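step: validate -> pass
step: tokenize input -> pass
step: predict -> running
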Amino acid sequence: MGMSLEDKLYLDRFNVEEEPHLVIRNQDVCLKECRDQPCLYFCPAGVYKLEEGRIGVAYEGCLECGSCRIGCPHLNIEWRFPTGGYGVRHKFG
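step: predict -> pass
step: emit ->
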């Protein structure tokens, strides 16, 4: 049997920058205008979570795939690569 997604994600290492590289521009758009909130589902690393009535962003676990750049129907997620030397390091094993 193959490795689970969690086991594969465990192989990744993150050098986390203090300044987030993922930011929700306007929480009101997410909570009042975005009915389906696809960000809660399209991120393969589960970075986006509904927490206490707002969308939380755990940017520290971002795989830098860019799904959120195109997946938000309101273009309400600001996405950039982390500063050089920071972000995810993938380990294949």
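step: describe -> The longest strand covers residues 48-51.
step: cleanup -> pass
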